Structures are given as C-alpha cells and as structure tokens.
Amino acid sequence: MALVKYNNNSISAITSTGLTAGAMTLIKSQTASSSSTISFIDGVSDVDLDATYPIYVFKFINANPNSGAGTCTFQFNGTDDTSSHSFDITKTTTTIQSTHGEGDGYALVRYNTSFDLAQSTAFQSLNFGDSSVDADGSISGELWLFNPSSTTFVKHFISNSNSMASDGSDHDMVGGYFNTTSAITGIQFKFSAGVIESGTFKLYGIKDS
Question: Is 6 exposed, middle or buried (0-12, 13-18, 19+ CB in 10 A)?
Fold first, then answer.
C-alpha cells in the first residue's frame, strides 16, 4: 500500500472541508452587574426569539448572587402577553440532582421533588442548593428551548448546570414543558433572593436543526 504524502501546495488548495460553519449563532450577550433580572425578549435590543431558529440555547456563565439564600430561576413569556411581559406561563417540570461536599462529608443523587412544578406559573429553579456568595462561587450551565414559535405543540426545555453550594459541587438537571400552544417570545432569569451580582448570559440560535 502506497504512502500518500501532502505538501503545502496540496493542503492550501483545499477550498471546502464539508463542515457546516456557524450552526450555532450568537444572538445576544448580556453582562449582569447587580441586576435584579436578565431578560431576552423578541424584538427588543436586537433579540430574535421567534421562528428564525427551531432551537434556542441560553448559556449562563459564572452567575453569582448577592444573597446566600438565592437559587437561579427562569420563566418564559408568550405572544399572549407582549405588552407587560409578566413571565407567567404554566409549566410542568421534573428535576434530578447530584451533589458532593468539598470535605467528602456528603454525596447523593436524587430525584428532587421539592423543586418540581406541576401546572405552575412560578419561576423554575435551575439549581437546588443556594448559590454561593463567595468571591469564587457561582452557577454556570445552559438551557435549551425547542421550537418556541410552534402554535401546535407545548414547548419543551431541558437545562444542565453546576454550582458551588454549601461548600460543595451541585449538579442539576431540569426538564419539562410549558403548557401552551402560543409562541414563546421571551425569557427572564433572576435569583430567588437578592440580585445577580455578576455573570454573563448568552442567547444562541441553532440553524438547520
């Protein structure tokens, strides 16, 4: 079997790799600074949250509260409320939590029923231990929203995050659906207590999905 050799000229002549560039497109990035909420609303400040993309991904990076009693929460808004943006869509959710202390004194994996919501309009928690207010503590993760512009189906979401809580690692997964056939047009993040002292929040759209 012959050994194929490539020189610089043959490599530079390649014009296409067959890979699709830009499948995930950054739509908007926001930086929190003692912010009570962070919101992404379709048509506001260059935000697209409509039929442009079939999947949207929200990333929250090193979000830190100013209160030790706070968990990071979110809620969506729909086309039935485009004026006041009350963020009160009915949802049903389920949660799984794993946690491990820094001193190896505790560790567990559980289905966390205390943060489930059943046909509720309340904000949904993304993490289940209070987010650390230490200088090096925060929560990071992502939230996926599927086909928000559909007027036929309910709106499914999944989230995956990790936070420092009570001097340990808290890994949380939340899934559920917003029980509406109206289009979803906005999202709001906030802590259950205090403000978002710092952190970066990004919105992406995924093409051809």
Answer: exposed
The pTM for the full model equals 0.85
> What is the side-by-side order of every strand in the sheet holding 124-125?
38-41, 184-191, 72-78, 124-125
What digits encode the pLDDT tens for the residues 164-198? 877 889 999 999 999 999 999 999 999 998 899 99
Please tell me the distance from the alpha carbon of residue 101 to that of residue 137, in angstroms, as a whole number. Answer: 14
Taking the C-alpha atoms of residue 52 and residue 204, their distance in angstroms, rounded to an integer, is 11
Residues 58-113 have pLDDT tens digits of 999 999 988 766 789 999 997 755 555 789 999 999 999 999 999 999 999 999 89
